[in-house]
DNA sequence: TTCTCGCTTGGAAACGTTTCCAATTCCTGT
DNA sequence: ACAGGAATTGGAAACGTTTCCAAGCGAGAA
């Protein structure tokens, strides 16, 4: 069924029908009414491919979520969608679980549809350096720092991960902790993990302690089981740890369980600080001290950056949003 | 840039170029090579709108996630994407957070693009009865029961929620609990909550107890804060509760916190059982007894049903997958 | 040489829209 | 009654592909 069918049946021309469909002026009420009626009667649906073809218009903003199961991303996704929707921009999200080929395919696929813009949630972007440099679609990285990654063509909004991690570990240090284990940040070298690790190292260094990677650091993916296993190994290796810094709340969740499984209590024997301030750290028993990354604000700024680029063609920008150490119940003073 | 530009520059006709693009036979190696070279040189990218228009082909499978932040959905999404990808089907996911208008818009939008198929994750479908009846795109509901909802045109895969809930509450009953509070399932009447509630009621009934909705039931959304608030209210109202059944693990997470905040211990003073078996219940302290809903299997079956419908036009089917009560540490025998 | 047959190739038509321009109709003021 | 302008309308052209049919070509058979 065609716009021509509608035209024929309604007695008007295709031009008029098209104008009705697109809510354009210069159509008499009579015509509009009649045409709408016929469309309803025939159950007509415009063909969006033809439409997009003709309008040279683009498909909605494509959002890529790098890693499923990290609550932080869920928290960002909602506000992001809301902020974009407010300006009439639809989003289409693709979930990626890290496999390089999969990511490539997905990005290529979406790129081929010429999305208006793209948003990347999450950090394991290193392997895509090559593909990313070619991107000219307005794009923003959320939670990862494009400038540090060397993508001058992409915007990004993130917190200062190294400072944030430094303050988290600093907090532990101020409370008298000296033997601090660090868990999270995956081996492959995700940017986020790396930056947070660097912050931790700095804090330690400022207190005259050099981080012993071999002994006090255990990498893992940002997923509960990763945190659990990594912490288990860490604890096994160095029993004298008095605190654990998890590079993400999901990881902290696993860590908490691992600590308890070892017969230790939090914060009684081992203190724990997380990162992100997702629902987990707010509701866990005990409530977890963590670094708050404001998901809503991140999302909002990302949306704004994208919108700016879409509307005025604003150049790629890098933006930092504030973080905040939120003290709860999982850290004990020594 | 056009397929015609490629044709002109390569010295071949558009037909041949098109055949090269689509990897079709009947093209000499010489031609193929030359055309590929020109395409690379000019950085040509086929216009997918034109292509889809002409091929009357459809956009990828659209997945709708009804409610962001419920870990269960994340757990399903990964395997679902994987299973579909294995058969070459891409997915595009839309996140919905329950607002009726938003859902309508999103579904309309995706429908207009004529997706090959659709998948709905989650249950608050009641308000869309009208729209759903008109769907003729192969679609499957995951986690919700299409037949009970009266959508003969949709497939669905789910567990038997009422039996599962019955066994969960039965477990509590067998352990001697008599004063059981139920929390979760939202007021608006999501199917899932309703079914689980019914199962709980049955179990109680079988033990000669009639559920007092006013006193022992507190509805809430499937989100941590909902579980927290609802449980707080419940506990305030009836202090003699000896167990709480949360209609979802996320809810149980909030419930656990609320119980502890009241100075009660789990399972010492209050036992807790959840539903879903997401990472939360496995890693929580204490580990939560819950009803296992096999996310991977759910996803796999859903993918298969959809694929069948896509390939052979198999009719809508309703499928049940097994559930399992997994006993952990949050239930005490009285 | 001539015929056939199979592989390549070219290009017009079609997919379902929007857009633009020209044509028509309808008012309004004189 | 009529001119002139505004509002409405019709329909051809164009968007960038794929598809189909006809045509070209060469090689092997007769």
Summarize this structure as a short list of keywords or feature phrases.
DNA-binding; homodimer; four-stranded parallel beta sheet; 334 residues; alpha/beta; six-stranded parallel beta sheet
Please provide a written account of the structure.
With 334 residues, the first copy, chain A, is an alpha/beta fold. In chain A, 48% of the residues lie in helices and 15% in strands. Chain A has 15 helices and twelve strands. Chain A has helices at 3-10, 14-21, 29-42, 48-55, 71-86, 100-112, 129-133, 146-149, 161-174, 191-206, 213-216, 224-237, 249-261, 279-283, 295-312; strands at residues 61-66, 91-96, 118-121, 139-142, 155-159, 180-183, 217-218, 243-246, 271-273, 290-293, 318-321, 323-326. Chain A has a six-stranded parallel sheet, sandwiched between helices. In chain A, strands 7-6-8-9 form a four-stranded parallel sheet. In chain A, helix 5 (71-86) links the parallel strand 1 and strand 2. In chain A, helix 1 crosses helix 2 (14-21), helix 1 (3-10) packs across helix 3 (29-42) and helix 9 (161-174) runs parallel beside helix 10 (191-206). The radius of gyration of chain A is 25 Å and the shape is elongated. The N and C termini of chain A lie far apart (76 Å). At the A-B interface, helix 4, helix 5, strand 2, helix 6 and helix 12 of A face helix 4, helix 5, strand 2, helix 6 and helix 12 of B. The structure holds a DNA duplex (30 and 30 nucleotides).
């Amino acid at each position: 069924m065609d716009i021509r069918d509608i035209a024929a049946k309604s007695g008007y021309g295709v031009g008029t029908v098209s104008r009705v469909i697109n809510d354009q002026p210069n159509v008499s009420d009579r015509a509009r009414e009649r045409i709408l009626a016929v469309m309803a009667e025939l159950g007509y649906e415009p063909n969006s491919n033809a439409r997009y073809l003709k309008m040279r218009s683009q498909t909605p903003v494509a959002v890529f979520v790098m890693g499923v199961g990290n609550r932080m991303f869920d928290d960002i996704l909602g506000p992001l969608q809301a902020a974009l929707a407010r300006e009439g921009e639809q989003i289409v999200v693709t979930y990626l679980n890290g496999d390089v080929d999969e990511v490539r395919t997905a990005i290529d696929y979406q790129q081929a549809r010429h999305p208006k813009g793209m948003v990347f949630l999450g950090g394991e972007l290193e392997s895509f350096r090559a593909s990313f440099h070619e991107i000219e679609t307005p794009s923003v990285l959320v939670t990862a720092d494009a400038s540090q990654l060397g993508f001058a063509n992409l915007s990004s909004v993130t917190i200062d991960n190294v400072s944030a991690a430094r303050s988290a570990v600093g907090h532990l240090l101020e409370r008298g902790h000296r033997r601090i284990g660090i868990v999270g940040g995956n081996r492959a070298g995700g940017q986020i993990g790396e930056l947070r690790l660097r912050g931790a190292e700095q804090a330690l260094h400022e207190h005259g302690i050099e981080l012993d990677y071999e002994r006090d650091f255990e990498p893992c993916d940002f997923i509960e089981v990763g945190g659990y296993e990594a912490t288990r190994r860490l604890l096994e290796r160095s029993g004298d740890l008095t605190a654990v810094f998890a590079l993400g709340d999901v990881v902290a969740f696993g860590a908490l369980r691992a600590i308890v499984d070892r017969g230790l209590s939090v914060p009684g024997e081992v203190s724990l600080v997380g990162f992100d301030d997702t629902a987990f750290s707010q509701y866990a028993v005990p409530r977890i001290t963590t670094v708050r990354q404001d998901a809503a604000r991140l999302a909002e700024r990302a949306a704004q950056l994208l919108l700016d680029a879409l509307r005025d063609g604003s150049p790629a920008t890098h933006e930092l949003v504030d973080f905040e150490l939120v003290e709860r119940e999982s850290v004990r003073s020594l």
